[in-house]
Amino acid sequence: MKTMMQILRDLTPLNRAVCSLGYDQAVDYLREVLPFRVISVPSSREHNGWVIPPSWDVEEARIVKDGRTVYDGTAHPLGVIGLSKSFSGTVSLEELRRHLHYDHRHDDSIPCHYRQQFRSWSRDWGFCMPKRIFDQLAPGYYEVVIRTEEAPGALKILEYKHPGSLDFTIVLGGNLDHAGAANDGLAGCVVGLEVLRRLLDRKTKFTYSLVLSPGIIGSELYLAGLNQSERSRILEGIFLEMLGSATPLAVQESRRCLVSALHALKASLDQLGLSYRTGPFESIIVNDEYVWENYGIPMLSFSRFPYPEYHSSRDSMEIIEETSLNEAVDALIGAVDWLEASPLVIKKFEGNVCLSNPQYDLYVDYGQIALGDTLSAQGRQMRCLMDFVPALDRPVSVKAVADHVGLPEKETLEYLQRWAVKRLIDLL
Length: 428
Description:
alpha/beta; Aminopeptidase; Glucose Oxidase, domain 1; eight-stranded mixed β-sheet; four-stranded antiparallel β-sheet; 19 strands; 31% helix
Protein backbone atom coordinates (compact mmCIF):
# COMPACT_ATOMS: atom_id res chain seq x y z
CA MET A 1 0.00 0.00 0.00
CA LYS A 2 1.38 3.40 -1.00
CA THR A 3 2.10 5.70 1.93
CA MET A 4 1.15 9.37 2.03
CA MET A 5 4.78 10.33 1.53
CA GLN A 6 5.13 8.03 -1.49
CA ILE A 7 2.01 9.47 -3.09
CA LEU A 8 3.33 13.00 -2.55
CA ARG A 9 6.72 12.09 -4.03
CA ASP A 10 5.05 10.62 -7.10
CA LEU A 11 2.52 13.38 -7.77
CA THR A 12 4.32 16.57 -6.72
CA PRO A 13 6.49 16.86 -9.90
CA LEU A 14 3.47 16.71 -12.22
CA ASN A 15 2.28 19.83 -14.02
CA ARG A 16 -1.21 19.61 -12.55
CA ALA A 17 -2.83 22.48 -14.39
CA VAL A 18 -6.65 22.50 -14.27
CA CYS A 19 -6.98 20.57 -17.56
CA SER A 20 -3.70 18.92 -18.46
CA LEU A 21 -1.86 15.66 -18.96
CA GLY A 22 -0.28 16.02 -15.52
CA TYR A 23 -3.65 16.42 -13.83
CA ASP A 24 -5.04 13.41 -15.72
CA GLN A 25 -2.01 11.37 -14.64
CA ALA A 26 -2.72 12.29 -11.01
CA VAL A 27 -6.35 11.22 -11.46
CA ASP A 28 -5.35 7.83 -12.91
CA TYR A 29 -2.76 7.31 -10.16
CA LEU A 30 -5.17 8.04 -7.31
CA ARG A 31 -7.85 5.77 -8.75
CA GLU A 32 -5.41 2.90 -8.24
CA VAL A 33 -5.07 3.87 -4.58
CA LEU A 34 -8.81 4.29 -3.87
CA PRO A 35 -11.71 3.44 -6.20
CA PHE A 36 -12.76 7.01 -6.92
CA ARG A 37 -15.62 7.93 -9.21
CA VAL A 38 -14.49 10.39 -11.88
CA ILE A 39 -16.87 13.24 -12.68
CA SER A 40 -15.83 14.66 -16.04
CA VAL A 41 -17.20 18.08 -17.00
CA PRO A 42 -16.61 18.94 -20.69
CA SER A 43 -15.05 22.26 -21.64
CA SER A 44 -18.21 23.16 -23.54
CA ARG A 45 -20.05 23.63 -20.26
CA GLU A 46 -20.21 27.09 -18.72
CA HIS A 47 -21.82 27.85 -15.36
CA ASN A 48 -22.28 31.22 -13.68
CA GLY A 49 -19.53 32.63 -15.89
CA TRP A 50 -17.05 29.89 -14.98
CA VAL A 51 -15.35 28.70 -18.16
CA ILE A 52 -13.42 25.43 -18.22
CA PRO A 53 -10.05 26.10 -19.85
CA PRO A 54 -8.78 24.01 -22.75
CA SER A 55 -6.53 21.05 -22.18
CA TRP A 56 -3.09 22.66 -22.07
CA ASP A 57 0.44 21.27 -21.92
CA VAL A 58 3.84 22.85 -22.51
CA GLU A 59 5.98 21.15 -25.17
CA GLU A 60 8.86 23.64 -25.34
CA ALA A 61 9.70 26.90 -23.58
CA ARG A 62 13.07 28.60 -24.04
CA ILE A 63 14.68 32.02 -23.81
CA VAL A 64 17.84 32.19 -25.94
CA LYS A 65 20.47 34.93 -26.28
CA ASP A 66 23.41 34.75 -28.67
CA GLY A 67 22.73 31.07 -29.29
CA ARG A 68 22.76 30.17 -25.59
CA THR A 69 19.65 29.12 -23.63
CA VAL A 70 19.44 31.45 -20.66
CA TYR A 71 16.21 29.96 -19.33
CA ASP A 72 14.36 26.69 -19.88
CA GLY A 73 10.74 27.06 -18.82
CA THR A 74 10.16 23.30 -18.81
CA ALA A 75 12.72 22.68 -16.04
CA HIS A 76 9.99 23.23 -13.43
CA PRO A 77 6.18 23.01 -13.75
CA LEU A 78 5.93 26.68 -12.70
CA GLY A 79 8.43 27.86 -15.33
CA VAL A 80 5.70 28.92 -17.77
CA ILE A 81 2.67 30.92 -16.64
CA GLY A 82 -0.49 28.87 -16.42
CA LEU A 83 -2.33 28.58 -19.74
CA SER A 84 0.32 30.61 -21.54
CA LYS A 85 -0.24 31.25 -25.23
CA SER A 86 2.27 29.88 -27.69
CA PHE A 87 4.79 32.41 -28.94
CA SER A 88 7.83 32.48 -31.21
CA GLY A 89 9.86 35.54 -32.02
CA THR A 90 12.69 37.95 -31.29
CA VAL A 91 12.09 40.55 -28.59
CA SER A 92 14.08 43.23 -26.83
CA LEU A 93 14.97 42.92 -23.15
CA GLU A 94 12.40 45.59 -22.37
CA GLU A 95 9.65 43.66 -24.16
CA LEU A 96 10.78 40.34 -22.68
CA ARG A 97 10.60 41.66 -19.13
CA ARG A 98 6.94 42.55 -19.63
CA HIS A 99 6.33 38.79 -19.93
CA LEU A 100 8.51 37.67 -17.04
CA HIS A 101 7.40 37.13 -13.44
CA TYR A 102 9.48 36.49 -10.33
CA ASP A 103 8.85 35.85 -6.65
CA HIS A 104 9.17 39.14 -4.78
CA ARG A 105 9.77 37.29 -1.51
CA HIS A 106 12.73 35.07 -2.44
CA ASP A 107 15.49 35.55 -5.01
CA ASP A 108 15.86 31.82 -5.66
CA SER A 109 12.26 30.66 -6.09
CA ILE A 110 9.80 30.56 -8.99
CA PRO A 111 6.36 32.07 -8.34
CA CYS A 112 3.03 30.42 -9.11
CA HIS A 113 1.16 32.36 -11.83
CA TYR A 114 -2.23 30.70 -12.14
CA ARG A 115 -4.87 33.36 -12.80
CA GLN A 116 -5.15 32.75 -16.55
CA GLN A 117 -6.65 29.33 -15.82
CA PHE A 118 -9.72 31.20 -14.54
CA ARG A 119 -9.63 33.72 -17.41
CA SER A 120 -9.09 31.63 -20.48
CA TRP A 121 -10.79 34.27 -22.64
CA SER A 122 -7.93 36.74 -21.99
CA ARG A 123 -4.47 35.21 -22.21
CA ASP A 124 -0.86 36.23 -22.71
CA TRP A 125 2.43 34.36 -23.01
CA GLY A 126 5.03 34.43 -20.29
CA PHE A 127 7.59 32.79 -18.04
CA CYS A 128 8.12 32.58 -14.27
CA MET A 129 11.72 32.54 -13.05
CA PRO A 130 13.87 33.24 -9.99
CA LYS A 131 14.61 36.93 -9.42
CA ARG A 132 18.35 36.28 -9.55
CA ILE A 133 18.01 35.14 -13.19
CA PHE A 134 15.70 38.05 -14.00
CA ASP A 135 18.29 40.49 -12.59
CA GLN A 136 21.12 38.93 -14.65
CA LEU A 137 19.46 39.36 -18.04
CA ALA A 138 21.72 41.54 -20.17
CA PRO A 139 20.55 44.23 -22.60
CA GLY A 140 19.97 43.10 -26.16
CA TYR A 141 17.60 40.86 -28.09
CA TYR A 142 16.31 37.42 -27.17
CA GLU A 143 14.84 34.53 -29.12
CA VAL A 144 11.72 33.28 -27.37
CA VAL A 145 9.89 30.03 -28.04
CA ILE A 146 6.83 28.81 -26.14
CA ARG A 147 5.16 25.89 -27.83
CA THR A 148 2.05 24.49 -26.20
CA GLU A 149 -0.43 21.80 -27.14
CA GLU A 150 -4.11 22.64 -26.70
CA ALA A 151 -7.35 20.79 -27.30
CA PRO A 152 -10.92 20.74 -26.00
CA GLY A 153 -10.58 19.39 -22.48
CA ALA A 154 -12.58 18.18 -19.52
CA LEU A 155 -12.39 19.22 -15.89
CA LYS A 156 -12.11 16.12 -13.71
CA ILE A 157 -13.37 15.72 -10.16
CA LEU A 158 -12.68 12.69 -7.98
CA GLU A 159 -15.33 11.50 -5.54
CA TYR A 160 -15.21 8.58 -3.14
CA LYS A 161 -17.99 7.73 -0.66
CA HIS A 162 -17.86 5.56 2.43
CA PRO A 163 -21.55 4.75 3.03
CA GLY A 164 -23.14 5.12 6.46
CA SER A 165 -26.43 4.05 8.00
CA LEU A 166 -27.90 7.58 7.95
CA ASP A 167 -28.77 9.63 4.90
CA PHE A 168 -26.35 12.42 5.90
CA THR A 169 -22.87 13.05 4.48
CA ILE A 170 -19.77 14.66 5.96
CA VAL A 171 -17.50 15.88 3.14
CA LEU A 172 -13.72 16.12 3.16
CA GLY A 173 -12.52 18.34 0.33
CA GLY A 174 -9.16 19.03 -1.27
CA ASN A 175 -7.55 20.67 -4.30
CA LEU A 176 -5.73 18.32 -6.66
CA ASP A 177 -4.33 20.99 -8.98
CA HIS A 178 -1.38 23.39 -8.30
CA ALA A 179 1.47 22.52 -10.63
CA GLY A 180 4.60 21.20 -8.94
CA ALA A 181 3.37 21.89 -5.39
CA ALA A 182 3.59 19.38 -2.55
CA ASN A 183 1.85 21.19 0.32
CA ASP A 184 -0.62 23.46 -1.41
CA GLY A 185 -3.56 21.25 -2.20
CA LEU A 186 -1.83 17.89 -2.59
CA ALA A 187 -0.90 17.35 1.07
CA GLY A 188 -4.55 17.88 2.04
CA CYS A 189 -5.62 15.41 -0.64
CA VAL A 190 -3.38 12.63 0.67
CA VAL A 191 -4.51 13.28 4.24
CA GLY A 192 -8.15 12.95 3.15
CA LEU A 193 -7.32 9.82 1.19
CA GLU A 194 -5.66 8.24 4.22
CA VAL A 195 -8.68 9.05 6.41
CA LEU A 196 -11.03 7.33 3.95
CA ARG A 197 -8.68 4.34 3.70
CA ARG A 198 -8.85 3.94 7.48
CA LEU A 199 -12.64 3.94 7.33
CA LEU A 200 -12.83 1.19 4.68
CA ASP A 201 -13.71 -1.65 7.07
CA ARG A 202 -15.60 0.45 9.58
CA LYS A 203 -19.38 0.71 9.95
CA THR A 204 -20.37 4.33 10.40
CA LYS A 205 -23.45 6.37 11.12
CA PHE A 206 -22.60 9.10 8.62
CA THR A 207 -21.56 8.75 5.00
CA TYR A 208 -18.08 10.19 4.55
CA SER A 209 -17.19 11.59 1.15
CA LEU A 210 -13.83 12.69 -0.24
CA VAL A 211 -14.05 15.20 -3.10
CA LEU A 212 -10.83 16.23 -4.88
CA SER A 213 -10.99 18.84 -7.61
CA PRO A 214 -9.24 21.86 -9.13
CA GLY A 215 -9.47 24.87 -6.84
CA ILE A 216 -12.65 26.98 -6.77
CA ILE A 217 -13.91 26.11 -10.26
CA GLY A 218 -13.92 22.40 -9.41
CA SER A 219 -15.96 22.85 -6.24
CA GLU A 220 -18.38 25.15 -8.06
CA LEU A 221 -18.98 22.69 -10.88
CA TYR A 222 -19.23 19.73 -8.51
CA LEU A 223 -21.94 21.40 -6.43
CA ALA A 224 -23.73 22.81 -9.47
CA GLY A 225 -23.92 19.28 -10.84
CA LEU A 226 -25.83 18.01 -7.80
CA ASN A 227 -29.58 18.39 -7.58
CA GLN A 228 -31.18 19.99 -4.52
CA SER A 229 -31.94 16.63 -2.93
CA GLU A 230 -28.32 15.50 -3.28
CA ARG A 231 -26.99 18.77 -1.85
CA SER A 232 -29.43 18.63 1.08
CA ARG A 233 -27.91 15.33 2.20
CA ILE A 234 -24.49 16.96 2.65
CA LEU A 235 -24.60 17.97 6.30
CA GLU A 236 -21.20 19.66 6.71
CA GLY A 237 -17.64 19.54 5.49
CA ILE A 238 -13.98 20.12 6.27
CA PHE A 239 -11.66 21.45 3.59
CA LEU A 240 -8.15 20.04 3.92
CA GLU A 241 -5.35 22.40 2.99
CA MET A 242 -1.57 22.52 3.27
CA LEU A 243 -1.32 19.93 6.03
CA GLY A 244 2.22 18.67 5.33
CA SER A 245 4.42 21.57 6.49
CA ALA A 246 5.86 21.99 9.97
CA THR A 247 3.79 25.13 10.53
CA PRO A 248 1.06 25.22 13.24
CA LEU A 249 -2.37 23.70 12.72
CA ALA A 250 -5.32 26.01 12.20
CA VAL A 251 -9.07 25.39 12.33
CA GLN A 252 -11.14 28.00 10.53
CA GLU A 253 -14.82 28.13 11.43
CA SER A 254 -17.84 28.10 9.16
CA ARG A 255 -20.03 31.13 8.53
CA ARG A 256 -22.64 29.29 10.61
CA CYS A 257 -22.42 29.43 14.38
CA LEU A 258 -23.16 25.78 15.15
CA VAL A 259 -21.35 23.06 13.19
CA SER A 260 -20.92 19.56 14.59
CA ALA A 261 -17.63 18.95 12.77
CA LEU A 262 -16.06 22.02 14.41
CA HIS A 263 -16.78 20.77 17.92
CA ALA A 264 -15.68 17.25 16.99
CA LEU A 265 -12.39 18.38 15.43
CA LYS A 266 -11.51 20.67 18.33
CA ALA A 267 -12.32 17.91 20.82
CA SER A 268 -10.09 15.52 18.89
CA LEU A 269 -7.19 17.96 18.75
CA ASP A 270 -7.53 18.65 22.48
CA GLN A 271 -7.67 14.95 23.25
CA LEU A 272 -4.49 14.35 21.22
CA GLY A 273 -2.75 17.28 22.90
CA LEU A 274 -2.08 19.00 19.58
CA SER A 275 -1.77 22.76 19.61
CA TYR A 276 -3.83 24.74 17.10
CA ARG A 277 -5.43 28.10 16.62
CA THR A 278 -8.97 28.90 15.57
CA GLY A 279 -10.51 31.85 13.77
CA PRO A 280 -13.79 32.92 12.20
CA PHE A 281 -14.67 32.33 8.57
CA GLU A 282 -12.10 33.75 6.10
CA SER A 283 -9.83 35.00 8.92
CA ILE A 284 -7.16 32.36 8.27
CA ILE A 285 -7.54 31.33 4.64
CA VAL A 286 -9.82 32.00 1.67
CA ASN A 287 -10.24 29.01 -0.58
CA ASP A 288 -13.02 26.65 -1.70
CA GLU A 289 -14.83 27.00 1.64
CA TYR A 290 -16.79 30.00 0.40
CA VAL A 291 -18.06 28.02 -2.61
CA TRP A 292 -19.57 25.32 -0.39
CA GLU A 293 -20.93 27.87 2.08
CA ASN A 294 -22.72 29.71 -0.72
CA TYR A 295 -24.55 26.48 -1.52
CA GLY A 296 -25.73 26.32 2.10
CA ILE A 297 -23.17 23.73 3.25
CA PRO A 298 -21.11 24.67 6.34
CA MET A 299 -17.44 24.15 5.49
CA LEU A 300 -14.56 24.36 7.95
CA SER A 301 -10.94 24.70 6.93
CA PHE A 302 -8.25 22.51 8.48
CA SER A 303 -4.81 23.72 7.46
CA ARG A 304 -1.27 24.69 8.41
CA PHE A 305 -1.57 28.04 6.68
CA PRO A 306 0.31 30.33 6.43
CA TYR A 307 3.64 28.85 5.46
CA PRO A 308 6.55 30.78 3.84
CA GLU A 309 6.84 28.65 0.70
CA TYR A 310 3.24 29.28 -0.41
CA HIS A 311 2.72 29.73 -4.18
CA SER A 312 6.35 29.16 -5.10
CA SER A 313 8.73 26.44 -6.27
CA ARG A 314 9.90 26.15 -2.66
CA ASP A 315 6.64 24.31 -1.98
CA SER A 316 8.37 20.98 -2.53
CA MET A 317 8.87 17.66 -0.77
CA GLU A 318 11.65 19.28 1.23
CA ILE A 319 9.10 21.09 3.41
CA ILE A 320 6.85 18.06 3.96
CA GLU A 321 7.00 16.40 7.38
CA GLU A 322 5.50 12.93 7.74
CA THR A 323 4.72 13.75 11.37
CA SER A 324 2.61 16.71 10.24
CA LEU A 325 0.60 14.52 7.88
CA ASN A 326 0.04 11.87 10.54
CA GLU A 327 -1.08 14.45 13.10
CA ALA A 328 -3.71 15.72 10.69
CA VAL A 329 -4.96 12.20 9.93
CA ASP A 330 -5.14 11.30 13.62
CA ALA A 331 -7.05 14.51 14.38
CA LEU A 332 -9.58 13.82 11.63
CA ILE A 333 -10.08 10.18 12.65
CA GLY A 334 -10.62 11.44 16.18
CA ALA A 335 -13.18 13.91 14.87
CA VAL A 336 -14.97 11.03 13.13
CA ASP A 337 -15.02 9.19 16.47
CA TRP A 338 -16.65 12.19 18.17
CA LEU A 339 -19.17 12.63 15.36
CA GLU A 340 -20.11 8.97 15.46
CA ALA A 341 -20.45 8.88 19.26
CA SER A 342 -22.62 11.97 19.74
CA PRO A 343 -26.31 11.57 18.78
CA LEU A 344 -27.65 13.80 16.02
CA VAL A 345 -30.49 16.14 17.02
CA ILE A 346 -33.21 16.51 14.38
CA LYS A 347 -36.05 18.91 15.20
CA LYS A 348 -39.56 17.74 14.24
CA PHE A 349 -41.70 20.76 15.07
CA GLU A 350 -42.09 24.42 14.14
CA GLY A 351 -42.43 27.45 16.35
CA ASN A 352 -42.14 27.39 20.14
CA VAL A 353 -43.46 24.74 22.49
CA CYS A 354 -45.03 25.65 25.84
CA LEU A 355 -42.63 23.53 27.84
CA SER A 356 -44.55 23.93 31.12
CA ASN A 357 -47.70 22.43 29.62
CA PRO A 358 -48.36 19.04 31.30
CA GLN A 359 -48.58 17.58 27.82
CA TYR A 360 -44.81 18.14 27.54
CA ASP A 361 -43.52 18.83 31.07
CA LEU A 362 -40.14 19.96 29.77
CA TYR A 363 -39.77 23.26 31.59
CA VAL A 364 -36.91 23.45 34.08
CA ASP A 365 -37.62 26.24 36.58
CA TYR A 366 -34.36 28.11 37.02
CA GLY A 367 -35.73 30.61 39.55
CA GLN A 368 -36.77 34.26 39.60
CA ILE A 369 -34.62 37.04 41.02
CA ALA A 370 -37.59 39.17 42.10
CA LEU A 371 -38.78 36.35 44.35
CA GLY A 372 -35.41 36.07 46.05
CA ASP A 373 -34.07 33.15 44.07
CA THR A 374 -30.35 32.94 43.34
CA LEU A 375 -29.79 32.12 39.69
CA SER A 376 -27.02 29.60 39.21
CA ALA A 377 -24.82 29.41 36.13
CA GLN A 378 -26.24 25.97 35.46
CA GLY A 379 -29.77 27.39 35.64
CA ARG A 380 -28.92 30.03 33.05
CA GLN A 381 -27.35 27.40 30.80
CA MET A 382 -30.43 25.20 31.07
CA ARG A 383 -32.60 28.17 30.11
CA CYS A 384 -30.36 28.68 27.06
CA LEU A 385 -30.84 25.02 26.15
CA MET A 386 -34.63 25.24 26.46
CA ASP A 387 -34.66 28.31 24.22
CA PHE A 388 -32.11 26.96 21.78
CA VAL A 389 -33.77 23.72 20.70
CA PRO A 390 -36.67 25.48 18.89
CA ALA A 391 -34.09 27.58 17.02
CA LEU A 392 -32.37 24.58 15.42
CA ASP A 393 -32.63 24.90 11.65
CA ARG A 394 -30.58 21.85 10.70
CA PRO A 395 -29.43 18.55 12.27
CA VAL A 396 -26.59 18.99 14.73
CA SER A 397 -24.80 16.81 17.28
CA VAL A 398 -25.62 16.77 20.97
CA LYS A 399 -21.98 17.65 21.65
CA ALA A 400 -22.24 20.80 19.52
CA VAL A 401 -25.41 21.83 21.36
CA ALA A 402 -23.83 21.10 24.75
CA ASP A 403 -20.70 23.10 23.92
CA HIS A 404 -22.83 25.97 22.63
CA VAL A 405 -24.92 26.33 25.80
CA GLY A 406 -22.09 25.43 28.16
CA LEU A 407 -23.54 22.27 29.70
CA PRO A 408 -21.91 18.83 29.98
CA GLU A 409 -22.78 16.58 27.08
CA LYS A 410 -24.22 13.86 29.37
CA GLU A 411 -26.61 16.30 31.06
CA THR A 412 -27.60 17.81 27.72
CA LEU A 413 -28.34 14.38 26.26
CA GLU A 414 -30.44 13.34 29.27
CA TYR A 415 -32.60 16.45 28.89
CA LEU A 416 -32.92 16.11 25.11
CA GLN A 417 -34.00 12.50 25.54
CA ARG A 418 -37.10 13.87 27.27
CA TRP A 419 -37.84 15.91 24.12
CA ALA A 420 -37.39 12.77 22.05
CA VAL A 421 -39.90 10.88 24.21
CA LYS A 422 -42.41 13.64 23.42
CA ARG A 423 -41.59 13.16 19.71
CA LEU A 424 -40.43 16.76 19.34
CA ILE A 425 -36.97 15.71 18.19
CA ASP A 426 -35.19 12.61 16.94
CA LEU A 427 -31.87 11.53 18.40
CA LEU A 428 -29.97 9.42 15.88
